[in-house]
Amino acid sequence: MRVQRSEATSQFYKEVGLKIAKCRKAADLAQQDLAARSNLTRTSIVNIEKGRQQVFLHTIVDLAKVLSVPVTDLIPSMQDIDHQLMGATAGGKDWLKLALSEEGAGDGRS
Question: Which of 37, 63, 72, 107 is least surrounded by CB atoms within 10 angstroms?
Answer without folding.
Answer: 107
